[in-house]
């Protein structure tokens, strides 16, 4: 008998119809098992009434289909309820996280202000005088290998005495295992005691209490939970490091804790920064790997630190950095060659996995990076798309690309002020477009700048050399030319069908261009 029979109000002589009504009541009551039992009884009852069954077949099928639809809706509602519960649990976790680190995100409207974190000084203390460059690296305990001591050694060994006066190295031990931190600090202070005393090396630690909850975070990109935890904590590690370093120097360079440096990397970097004077940039890159060799203005560090904290669980730090520079209106990556830093570790800080990535643009001796003093560039060669003249003169991995040049066409560099040039090296063509070289051309230097309809140029020139296989190089120019050079000119001496790529124009001076 139907458990809902007490509520069946139809007359009993209607038989099967009364039972069908009971089925509806059982569905609404959520009693699916009894509903099925009633349907079976209904079918047996109809089997006894064969004539009546023929007339009742179509209504019965309608009732059956309706019942199945209600059952389906009931099950779907169950799934929806479970999904709502799951979302509610996730929301609750996020709210708990927010309550845990509300002090870290307080006053976000002051986006350029420092984050309120009380750091522990494990070694050294900051000096009152600002340096030119702060080099920051964050380190955690690895399951396999530890390279932080080698990284610090490379930074100091590859710097001259004068360069050491302009840098400060900050190591953030972002490990919650305090015994490990203390052990490593002892090794650092023993090996680099004179740098600690001189104020060139600081070791800091941000207490765990300032970190947001790192469990139960969003699993973007289907990353496993431990991977999400690792990369989210890494973002916070870097944020606290950037926050600490925001007022120590004019510029900030981010390294990882398993890096080897090129010789005199600071001097090479300063040449690049000087060459970018007057142009806007957020990030300059001196390596193409990870978060290695990324240079910032120190006054951008508070904003970058808060940005990493705000979106710490969304994606890895190197992806967030791309968004950060885009938001500050740097549209393109500005990366320089040769790379000044090389990844040297074999095992990742994440689970000790193998990581043998190498930067094939790295050069151990970077001291010979060109000066390329400030200048204006002019050409009458038909430029293809946006491959303009300035891209040949920059250290960025770009080039000038022009359509088939004719005899007499030129490419001129006019310096902002008189310059003593010691060496010039020009390369045309690329590995994938080896025919787009200057097949016949000359390298000239000139003096006495004049204005023309086609831009500025010099009134007199002296030839230094001819292009061979698309390249030309002139050395010891100061012994060959008696006047201060105001212009450098590339002249096409024979027309060619091939287009022309000027891959790089490198100039060296007798003194740094900023002096």
Describe this structure in words.
- It is a single chain.
- The chain is an alpha+beta fold and 515 residues long.
- Helix content is 34%, strand content 23%.
- It has helices at 16-29, 32-48, 50-100, 148-157, 161-164, 178-191, 193-197, 225-245, 265-275, 301-310, 317-327, 390-393, 477-480, and strands at 120-123, 131-139, 167-173, 201-205, 249-254, 259-261, 283-285, 294-297, 341-343, 375-379, 400-402, 410-419, 421-428, 441-452, 455-466, 471-475, 485-492, 500-509.
- The strands form four sheets. A seven-stranded mixed beta sheet has the order 1-4-3-2-5-8-7, sandwiched between helices. Strands 10-12-17-14-15 form a five-stranded antiparallel beta sheet, with no helix packed on it.
- Strand 14 and strand 15 form a beta hairpin.
- Helix 1 runs parallel beside helix 3 (50-100) and helix 2 runs antiparallel to helix 3.
- The N and C termini lie far apart (103 Å).
- The model is unreliable at 1-17, 23-30, 76-85, 88-109 and 347-353 (pLDDT under 50).
- GO terms for molecular function: acetylglucosaminyltransferase activity.
- Residues 375-503 form the MGAT4 A/B/C C-terminal domain.
- Keywords: Glycosyltransferase, Membrane, Transferase, Transmembrane, Transmembrane helix.
- This is Alpha-1,3-mannosyl-glycoprotein 4-beta-N-acetylglucosaminyltransferase C isoform X3.
- Residues 98-362 form the MGAT4 conserved region domain.
